[in-house]
Amino acid sequence: MYERFAHEYAAHAEDSAYNALYDRPAVLALAGDVADLAVFDAACGPGLYARELLKRGARVTGCDVSPTFVDLARARCDGLADLRVHDLSEPLTWVPDDSADLVVCALALHYIDDRVGLLREFRRILTRRGAVVLSTEHPVMHWVRLGGSYFAEERVEESLHSDRDWPIRAWRRPLTAVCADFREAGFAIEELLEPRPTPEMAVRYPEDHAKLEVLPAFIAFRLIPA
């Protein structure tokens, strides 16, 4: 979905309120100390998380379905991360069992039809004491934006950004259903985080900061094998 506007999105996400000052700080906080860890960056996008993980001492592999994103990510990481073009709707056959200490999957799970299948792949590639850190759109935000029943489970089509023609297709699901997928795939929730905007956002993006102090846009989890 992102391939058509990959360069635009990459420039936007580098410094935007919701990416740079909301989701990335939350995901990286849940990841914790990654020094000397093998980290798999699922849906790596233009490499913004991978670059930071490398800076913090991780050994990074990963993938994205967009060839443009993978090219951008490789360049952003100076070739230090093993990043490949791969569709997460397909098994990670090239990733060995028990090879990742941590899987990071930022703002991508809601695009996947077979979420349990993907989560089971994450569990397969994790080491025994490994963890998955993922973020996704908060179900309440979906309900506020789209209306109808909060408990609806349906695929919706809309623009990723209200002011741009960036069409996406994503799943709208209640929190109960999201968490049920984790359990079915063999995970327990170690930590659940409804992020708060960073203080820097209040200075640079005061309107976004005010909105996110009232209503969470994303939700993040740290999952461990059950």
TrEMBL record:
The keyword Glycosyltransferase does not apply. Keywords: Methyltransferase, Transferase. Transmembrane segments: none annotated. Residues 41-133 form the Methyltransferase type domain. One of its GO terms (molecular function) is S-adenosylmethionine-dependent methyltransferase activity. It comes from the Bacteria. GO terms for biological process: methylation. The keyword Lyase does not apply. InterPro entries: Methyltransf_11, Methyltransf_Superfamily, SAM-dependent_MTases_sf. This is SAM-dependent methyltransferase. It comes from Actinomadura livida.
